[in-house]
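writing this on my phone so excuse typos. first protein, seq and then structure
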Amino acid sequence: MRNQLLIFGFTAALPIACLVGLLSVGVAQDKPAEKPAAQPDEKTELAELLDDARNYTIRIGKPDVALKLHEPPVLNFTNPERNQERGSVFVWLHEGRPAVVGQFFRFGVRGQRLKKHALHSLVQGPLEAKFQEKLAWAPEKPGIEWKPFPDAPAVAATHKERLLQMRQLVRTFKVNLIDPRDKPTELRLAPRPLYEYAAPRAGVTDGVFFSYLIATDPEAILLVEAFDEGGKTGFRYAFARFHYWRLTATLGDKTVWDVEHDPIMGGNRFGNPDAIKKVYNSYHP
């Protein structure tokens, strides 16, 4: 009988608990399911980045001359490995030769789409960049260092042959991105050049941009030129960074490019006086 009473007492209390449970299930079922966060619209974001590029005024030399923005961007890219990055690469020209390369992108952090602008000087002297009429960047030192290719072949006679020569020369490099913990990642050479140009007034017969990637996101840029300066011909190259971590490039067993990790660029802000004169400046606009 005691057992029966205990059982009866338990079963008598059970419907109340069940009722509460059923009510809570019913409420949960009646509550509309939360919609997944909307994916950012690709067309809208890329149009915004192009508009940003158009809002830069970049001037070089004395008397100063405004650089010309090349449109459309030379690349639209994504990087799902890094917070769903989506961006564009832009080039500003001086007399047909690239003088500035820029990478503008958006990325996701805690439900927000943040934006960064990254600019790298490709000239040997100072320049000044304003964004929406406000000073954004003013490097004073040479942006890149041109170096000759060792044992390069004689420059070919035709444009097509020169491009083939430059592609073959570029394949000899190995480029690594090294994170702050000193872990290297070998970057992938993009199968096609980003941009081709010629600038006879500067002695450039043919020039090409190559890029080294994670996903489709350029982390380093390699410029290669076939030059003819007063009858002296040859091939030269120069690297430019598109990341603030350390980057290295080797040619055979020799390191030919090594730029240090620059932690200030991680959370860098527009107009930061500690960064505004660097040849590579990456900031939240």
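second protein below, same order as before
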Amino acid sequence: MRPDTPDTLPSRSTSPELGSPSLKQLYNQKTGRPIRRSAGHIKSLAGFVDSAILDDDDDEPIEMPWEDEDGEIVRQPRSKKRKRSPSPPPPPLDPIIYDEAVDELSDDDLVGHNSDSNTSVTLQFNIPLGFHGPLVVKVDRSLLTRNTEGVAHDMHKRKMRKQFKSATPNLEIQETALAVKKTGFCDLPPELRNKIYRHVFVVDNGFRFPVPSSKTVSCSSQFLRTCRLVHSEGCSVLYGENNFSFDRNRTTRGTFWDPVPKEIGYKDIRQFLKMIGPENLAYLREIKLVFEDANQSSTPYIHSHEERRYLNDEHLIDCLRILRTAKLRKLTVCFLGRRALTMADVKFVDYLERIKADEVLASEYAKYLYTNKIHSSAWEYLKEHMTRKKKLYVRE
């Protein structure tokens, strides 16, 4: 078999087995970089439109540059220059007013201007020709320093009276209508106002905590918001002429995320004493305190009976701490705990003896049925130290 010679070798252009020369990567002879033949010739996919064409219909399609065989970038010049959109016309200018009228001065401006002591006074003298004698000018000082405010007020009053006379022909009716003054609640005598306060705020049996379901504590609170005078006088009657009874609330209450609702106890009483403030707290004259332990059914989260005693209730201790500043006339106490109160309960006795009143009594309910709930020595000690030595109130 004859060997292949260069003349007999198959041509690259005619041999599909050796590959087509058009698919061979061409390189730039100067830079050595590959030549991209597809630059500027890639067509967009079917169904898609360039967003630059949609923005402005007057713009020409963008022509991408491409590279030739020598590696030079070829750019085709645009056949049409883009037109600039005309600028919007400026807003019309306001008309020029050459002769603008001056605003009239109000009464306040006139009074303030004339009342200035440093305002200069200009005097003009027209002296005839041929006058050689001395010129003497005398100016009354009262004319320069008169109260223009009173003058302006009199002028305004005179103007209003003139308008009123033109509307009402009878002069006597005019003078009477001008002198009429509306009478309100605060214009009443204090004796009448106090009777109204007692009729609205005073309750026969007083207020009791916890509040029974058939009653309410609110007593026309909108009336107290009328003015400062009504609030001050009404609160003195509301808190000073009513008696308040504070007992333990055995019902439970809790938020929706608490797994076990807790007993209210003395929480509402503590909130009430803090809410009324020190001024209304000083108005309290007669209160009753009932000391009672918590029940096991309402406090399953407490594991010992000692913790259920009122001696260890922090809310009750805080109530006693607040009542130290009250100016009480009569204080009634009732002890209903599981065990009798003794002098060994130093902490509770110390807080309780700091409350002062002109008269300290034991509740009748505790006196006959639960006489063993407080030791006799403890009661004698508390009664002696809680009773005010110098009476603050005098009995009528």
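Residues 148-167 form the longest helix (20 residues). thats all i got for now
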